[in-house]
Structures are given as C-alpha cells and as structure tokens.
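Our preliminary data section would be incomplete without showing what the modeling component actually yields. Below, a chain of 93 amino acids is followed by its predicted structure, encoded as tokens that our downstream tools consume directly.
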Amino acid sequence: MSTAMNFSSKSFTPRPPDKGAFPLDHFGECSAFKERFMECLRRSSYESAACRPSALAYLQCRMDRQLMANEPLEKLGFKDLINEKSEEKPKKP
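Predicted structure:
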C-alpha cells in the first residue's frame, strides 16, 4: 500500500505574500534608522506609539532604497504624522 499521495495532475506554484516580505538590508543602508528606532523602544519601555516618528523614518529609508515596495505613508498608518509635518512647514508668501 502506498502512503504517498499522488498530486501529479496539479502542480503547486508558490508565490510571495502581498505584504510582509521584502529584501533584507544586507548592506546596512538603513541600520542607523533601525538603531534609532530600537533605542527609542528601549527608552520608552517598548511602547511603540512613542516611537512612531522613528518608525516612519525607518520605513521611508527602506522605500527610498527599494528595500520594500513604495507605499503611501498614510496607508502604512502615519497619516497623522504626515499632517503634522505639513503644518510645521511655513507657507510661502
């Protein structure tokens, strides 16, 4: 009796997930941003809400260097930080 299943009629083609998989930063291009984020987490007793600006900078670095897909920062949950930045910029006369 054969215990192996025979699926020869169908072939499985793996595909990467839509989100959550991206190239590793082998060259350390964004390691300074990552370290600032990790240091912020340690200082804030791992309260991630306190470190959102650092997380934003880290993700922006990864997108700029094509280490992850470009996504609007609003879609990544940083809409409030984007609005704060635009309010801080002085308006040109």
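The chain is about 40% helix and 0% strand. Residues 31-43 form the longest helix (13 residues). Preliminary results of this kind motivate Aim 1 of the renewal.
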